[in-house]
Every structure is written in structure tokens, then in C-alpha cells.
Amino acid sequence: MEEGTCRFHMGHRIRKLDNMLKRNMQLALSGLGVDEVTAMNGFIIQYLYHHADRAVYQRDIEKEFKIGRSAVTNILTRMEENGFIHRETDGSDARLKRLTLTAKGEEQCQLLQDAIEWLNCRQLQGISQEEQERFFATLEKIEGNAGRLAARILGGDDSWTGEIRRK
Predict the structure, then answer these.
(1) Distance (Å, rounded) from C-alpha 106 to C-alpha 63?
(2) DSSP string spanning 94-134?
(3) DSSP assignment, residue 24?
(4) CA distances from 50 to 27, 47, 55, 132 (A)
(5) In CATH, what number is assigned to the domain containing residue 96?
(6) How many Å apart are CA 56 and CA 49, to the nearest integer?
(7) How wide is the angle at C-alpha 44 spanned by C-alphas 26 and 87, nearest 5°?
(8) Could you tell me if residue 159 is inside a domain?
(9) R_g over Cα of the chain
(10) Domain count, the chain
(11) Could you say which DSSP state residue 32 is in?
(12) Is residue 16 part of a domain?
């Protein structure tokens, strides 16, 4: 797409959809009697479950979910207080805390998986397999563009500021 031809402003729509998806997850979990698990807690529990074969640290959560350190620290602290995870000092580096699911976290895992699957199926209802594949391929491209743009902005090259001011 050429510069200056972006007709669609996606940020607001994506944020709105994200809020709707999180709300649906919270409503579903609440309806199942799981009030103390937030949508993000659920995603982290799923991540830890599916990566139980290796050491997972806070930085892995930050990277996977594109969340800042302080936000992840707060989320993990609440998850530990609620008994879903345990943080244990890594034997090779005392500064690192390995994240593991507790028995309570593991118990919630299957219910969370079922809720996510149920929600996904209903939220993709009426959208063909081909449309879904195109949608997810497009999302991957947007994520790649956003990642490269962030690297450019954070990389110290100020040339991008002129591109904005030129318009």
C-alpha cells in the first residue's frame, strides 16, 4: 500500500474487539463459577500448561503477550496470591524466578481450554474457513509491521518523524 492511502483506521476497531473478547471471556468464566480468573490469567495459565516441558520465566510472558514488565509483575503477583502459580528461584541464576502452575492452576486449565474453544467457535460463527485463514494471515502481517515499526521508532532512527510531519 502506498503512503497516504490508508483508508481504514484499525486501532480503535481492534481495541474495541479486544475489549469485547475479554468481556465475553470474563462473562463465560463467571458463569462457570470461576470469578477469580481474568482473561489474561487464563491465557497465562494456558501458556504455562503448554510449555510445562521447559522453564518459563516472567520475560517469556512479557514477550509472548507483548506486555511490559511492571504489568506482568502485577498480574503474576495476583496469580500467585490466588494460588494459580508458584514462582521459584532458578538454580542457575537467583535473579530469575521460574513460573509453574500449582495444582489449582492445573485444575482450572481444562475448564479454561474448554471455555476458550467454546468462545472461539461461537465468535467465528458464519465465517468460512477461507475467510478465517485470510483474516489470521492478515493479522500476522499487521503484527509483523507493528513489530518492525516499534523497532524502528525505538532504534534511534528519527527519520520517521519527518514522514509524519511532512503530511
Answers:
(1) 22
(2) TT-EEEEE-HHHHHHHHHHHHHHHHHHHHHTTT--HHHHHH
(3) H
(4) 24, 5, 11, 24
(5) 1.10.10.10
(6) 10
(7) 125
(8) no
(9) 19
(10) 1
(11) T
(12) yes
Q: Is the pLDDT of residue 46 over 90?
A: yes
Contact predicate 106/49, CB 8 Å: yes
Q: Which of 100, 81, 80 is nearest to 89 (CA)?
A: 100
Q: What is the pLDDT of residues 142-154, one digit of tens each?
A: 999 999 998 888 8
Q: Cα(151)–Cα(97) distance, rounded to whole angstroms?
A: 27
Distance CA 18, CA 66 (A): 14
Report the alpha-carbon distance of residue 107 to residue 18 in Å, rounded.
26
Establish if 158 belongs to a structural domain: no
Percent of the chain at pLDDT exceeding 70 = 96
Number of alpha carbons in the 13 Å side-chain half-sphere of residue 48: 30
Q: How far is CA 108 from CA 32, 38, 85, 92, in A?
A: 11, 12, 11, 30
pLDDT at residue 155 in the model: 85
Q: Which residue has the higher pLDDT, 165 or 57?
A: 57
In a domain, 88, yes or no: yes
